[in-house]
Amino acid sequence: MRVLAIDHGAARCGCALSDPSGTIVRPIGPIEPCAASAVPAIVAEHRVEMVVVGLPVSLDGREGAQAAAARGFAADLATRVDVPVRTYDERLTTKLAAASRRGGSRAAEDSLAAAHLLESFLRASEREGRR
Q1: Where are the domains of the chain?
Q2: Class of residue 102 by CB neighbours under 10 A (exposed 0-12, middle 13-18, buried 19+)
Q3: CATH number belonging to domain 3-128
Q4: By C-alpha distance, which of 33, 74, 76, 32 is closest to 55?
Q5: Is 86 in contact with 41 (CB distance < 8 Å)?
Q6: 78-87 pLDDT, tens per residue?
Q7: Which helix (H) or strand (E) holds 99?
Q8: Share of the chain above pLDDT 90, in %
């Protein structure tokens, strides 16, 4: 199943795609400015079967204004695409993305965060036996 992950942000949305088998993840260009209206074209172009939107929660699990914005974005997106839209905990993905950049990755940091989010989502889905 090809999955698109989105790291929602106020200015732009980082994006990453899985391969059809759900084993390889690659960052793609971010959506600037971040708009749900831009996502259906990506879904169609890449034959995406599910969209995962990162949910920014604090380390203790609390949700704030950014999480509310991400949930609103996901709800808006669900009305625009004909594939399931889910949210998934994105804790620490920004730190992982920064480490990837320091390690030499040239992808946009937002899209690297989306790639780490997607890798985590796919691993958890595999453990749970679903996708």
Answers
A1: 3-128
A2: exposed
A3: 3.30.420.140
A4: 74
A5: no
A6: 999 999 999 9
A7: helix 93-102
A8: 63
Sequential DSSP letters for 7-35: E--SS-EEEEEE-TTS--EEEEEEESS--
How does 49-87 read in b/e, with b if 16+ C-beta sit within 10 Å? Answer: bbbbbbbbbeeeeeeeebbeebeebbeebbeebebebeb
Q: Are 25 and 17 in contact (CB under 8 A)?
A: yes
Q: Tell whether pTM > 0.85.
A: yes
Token readout for 52 is 């995962």
Residue written as tokens 């609103």? Answer: 72
Q: Please, which pLDDT band fits residue 115 given cuts at 50, 70 and 90?
A: very high
**Higher-pLDDT residue of 106, 54:** 54
For residue 111, give the 3-state DSSP assignment. Answer: helix
Vertex 125 angle, CA 47 and 36, to 5°: 45
For the ranges 4-8, 33-37, 56-60, 94-98, the lowest mean pLDDT is seen at 94-98
Token digits of residue 19: 């391969």
